[in-house]
């Protein structure tokens, strides 16, 4: 046995001696890698100018998949308390997302017959972007939001908000106070919960008999099909299919009764849950989606194993474009500073050698720097001053909204670059015709 072989065997032995990582939903041992995006800082840890020269904490972005319940998951490298105690994301800065929330509130109020005697509770209610739409209808609401800085914005809008993390403990406290929910809403929060079983158990406790839970989250089927690797970051602990949701619901005495497929966040599901003894039958939407997912291999571990190759190819594709553009003397900036953008920038090692700056509508981020790559974040008008040749759209799920808002950049022949699933160049002059 040569030296290299001996060293490989030594590392293999050490790896096997490490404690086994188990699935956060079903407890099975995790043996299969979904994708490894290397080391990255927490995606919402934007830096002040005085912090740029300080040490940053980096953690692995290595994602595993369970071969029992097919939950795609990231180990809890960063605690929710560290991520969400003060949070940089305010939902109301996305016009299209607020409009989406308003349509949901109008539709669900009609569907469930909500009124003055009802209670709608949103988990991770952010700045009141959604619950505010129930207020003119006279429907009582309660927001639960762990980030105090974001909760303050909701309270200022007149949305009652409790600053806390949701789980079985808080659910029992609320019930002891006489609070039961006719509707529990969780929009893009399920992925951010490291202790899934505690969270779902809490929903079961808080939900009134005959009530409904609706959860929205990016659909892992679309993540795989459209190479959305940048939607993976430390605050997203889990990535869901309908197959996994069905298993999760059954584990906690809930029933998966309906589902809608949505275009938001690159393709999402809105699932409806009820108590298992609820008389409403499971809809054909659920039956059809579960069958489709199985036909597409989402209950086959081999489907997940090939995703890493697609992420690597997208990285090479984007870097090839950026290198060629810079060699031609083109000026490039970014639009947006979302979490997904920071995964992309760090995985591809895109710094100020490629992007002069990025812009964002959220004033909280102005004057700060992106984690890891330290790209300065400026107000949106900075694009008009710099007149770049290309604008890299980091929140690509909002590309239509952004390109329409910024269509005037066609005046100096600027073009937008959408990086996912692979590089696409969009001329706003043609897009907005």
Question: Unreliable stretches, pLDDT < 50, 5 or more residues?
Answer: 11-18
**Major sheet: order of its strands?**
6-5-4-7-8-11-10
What overall form do the CA principal axes indicate? globular
Supply the number of helical segments: 15
What are the salient characteristics of this protein?
433 residues, alpha/beta, seven-stranded mixed sheet, six-stranded mixed sheet, 15 helices, 34% helix, 20% strand, globular
Q: Could you characterize the architecture of this molecule?
A:
With 433 residues, this protein is α/β, with parallel strands linked by helices. It contains 15 helices and 17 strands. It has helices at 3-17, 80-84, 95-112, 148-156, 168-176, 196-206, 220-225, 242-251, 284-295, 301-305, 307-327, 339-348, 382-386, 399-405, 428-431, and strands at 32-40, 59-65, 72-74, 120-123, 141-144, 161-162, 181-187, 207-218, 238-239, 254-262, 268-275, 332-335, 358-359, 377-378, 390-393, 415-418, 424-426. The strands form three sheets. Strands 6-5-4-7-8-11-10 form a seven-stranded mixed beta sheet. Strands 14-13-12-15-16-17 form a six-stranded mixed beta sheet. A four-stranded antiparallel beta sheet has the order 1-2-3-9. Helix 4 (148-156) links the parallel strand 5 (141-144) and strand 6 (161-162). The model is unreliable at 11-18 (pLDDT under 50).
Overview in brief:
Helices cover 34% and strands 20% of the residues. The protein has 433 residues and is α/β, with parallel strands linked by helices. The radius of gyration is 22 Å and the shape is globular.
């Amino acid at each position: 046995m040569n030296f290299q072989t001996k060293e490989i065997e030594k590392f293999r032995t050490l790896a096997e001696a490490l404690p086994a990582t188990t699935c956060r939903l079903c407890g099975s041992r995790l043996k299969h890698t979904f994708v490894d995006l290397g080391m990255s800082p927490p995606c919402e840890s934007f830096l002040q100018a005085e912090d740029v020269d300080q040490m940053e904490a980096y953690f692995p972005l290595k994602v595993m998949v369970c071969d029992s319940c097919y939950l795609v998951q990231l180990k809890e490298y960063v605690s929710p308390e560290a991520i969400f105690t003060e949070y940089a994301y305010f939902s109301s800065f996305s016009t299209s997302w607020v409009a989406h929330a308003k349509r949901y509130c109008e539709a669900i109020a009609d569907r469930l017959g909500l009124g003055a005697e009802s209670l709608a509770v949103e988990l991770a209610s952010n700045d009141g972007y959604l619950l505010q739409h129930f207020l003119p209808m006279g429907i009582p609401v309660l927001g639960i939001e762990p980030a105090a800085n974001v909760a303050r914005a909701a309270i200022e809008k007149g949305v009652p908000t409790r600053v806390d993390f949701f789980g079985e403990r808080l659910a029992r406290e609320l019930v002891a106070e006489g609070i039961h929910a006719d509707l529990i809403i969780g929009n893009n929060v399920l992925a951010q919960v490291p202790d899934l079983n505690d969270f779902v158990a809490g929903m079961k406790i808080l939900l009134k008999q005959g009530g409904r839970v609706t959860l929205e989250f990016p659909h892992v089927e679309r993540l795989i099909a459209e190479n959305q690797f940048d939607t993976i970051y430390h605050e997203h602990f889990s990535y869901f299919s309908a197959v996994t949701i069905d298993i999760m619901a059954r584990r906690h005495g809930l029933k998966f009764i309906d589902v809608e497929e949505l275009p938001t966040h690159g393709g999402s599901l809105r699932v409806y849950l009820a108590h298992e003894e609820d008389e409403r039958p499971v809809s054909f939407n659920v039956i059809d989606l579960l069958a489709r997912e199985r036909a597409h291999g989402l209950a086959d571990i081999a489907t997940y194993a090939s995703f890493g190759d697609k992420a690597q190819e997208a990285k090479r594709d984007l870097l090839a474009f950026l290198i060629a553009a810079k060699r031609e003397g083109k000026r490039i900036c970014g639009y947006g500073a979302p979490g997904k953008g920071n995964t992309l920038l760090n995985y591809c090692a895109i710094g100020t050698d490629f992007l002069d700056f990025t812009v964002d509508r959220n004033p909280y981020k102005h004057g700060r720097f992106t984690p890891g790559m330290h790209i300065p974040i400026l107000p949106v008008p900075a694009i008009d001053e710099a007149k770049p040749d290309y604008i890299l759209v980091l929140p690509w799920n909002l590309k239509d909204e952004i390109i329409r808002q910024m269509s005037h950049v066609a005046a100096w022949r600027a073009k937008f670059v959408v990086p996912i699933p692979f590089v696409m160049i969009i001329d706003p002059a043609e897009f907005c015709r």
